[in-house]
Write a structure and sequence with these properties.
Blueprint (H helix, E strand, L loop, with lengths): L9 E4 L6 E2 L4 H12 L6 H8 L3 H17 L4 E2 L3 H9 L3 E5 L4 H11 L5 E5 L7 H12 L6 E5 L2 H9 L3 E5 L3 H9 L6 E4 L2 H10 L2
Length: 207
């Protein structure tokens, strides 16, 4: 694997809403998690760290996995992502960090036909936050943070990457994420993109 002109060698991708769209009805999921926990739930990402290390964490994870697996029949592949990651693999090492379960990540990548392109997969079974997931990829792969970029669709992906000393790319699927990025003053530190195709074009220009 040759080093690119910019020194970037490793790409970490988020899965849902970055490479694909899992059409999970999160309103129903939050209702069922709330019944299990006995309180209102409005965010899966915020709930996971609070439950980490407990038996309830695994109960919630299994409950959500049922919905994730059911959604696979209606999986939407975004931006011709299989072709894009195949092209990027020629110049970069690829990894996945996701709050989906390991089983779901594996199945999605097999559906896309790109499982063999990703060296490291980190799921919610491994770590409950994006920041910890990125750190785990760096450790497991022996990657330098300065040579690594996180590609996601949420500001949390950006913040988590920067806190680990990595570069960050935001694929803007929702305008409010770009607005939140600007409010945090992180736009100048982030590669903002309209699509994965644009990411491909930018990175190929630096090879």
């Amino acid at each position: 694997m040759r080093e690119t002109i910019s020194g970037l060698r490793n790409l970490i991708f988020d899965l849902d809403e970055t490479l694909v769209l899992l059409p999970v009805d999160w309103g129903v999921v939050y209702r069922d998690i709330g019944r299990l926990l006995g309180r209102e739930v409005t965010s899966f990402a915020a709930t996971l760290p609070m439950l980490w290390g407990s038996d309830m964490y695994w109960k919630v994870s299994r409950l959500v996995e049922e919905y994730e697996l059911k959604s696979l029949s209606k999986l939407v592949v975004l931006d011709d992502s299989p072709s894009i990651v195949r092209g990027l693999r020629k110049d970069y090492r690829l990894s996945i960090t996701s709050l989906q379960s390991r089983k779901v990540i594996e199945r999605v990548l097999h559906i896309m036909g790109v499982r063999e392109l990703f060296d490291i997969l980190v799921s919610r079974e491994d770590k409950p936050t994006r920041r910890e997931q990125i750190r785990l990829v760096l450790t497991a792969g022996g990657y330098e943070a300065s040579e690594t970029m996180m590609v996601g669709d949420r500001v949390d992906d950006v913040v988590s990457a920067l806190k680990n000393g990595c570069r960050a790319a935001l694929v803007v699927r929702k305008t409010n994420e770009l607005e939140n990025l600007r409010k945090l003053g992180l736009e100048s530190k982030t590669l903002t993109l309209r699509s994965l195709k644009e990411l491909y074009e930018v990175l190929k220009r630096t090879c």
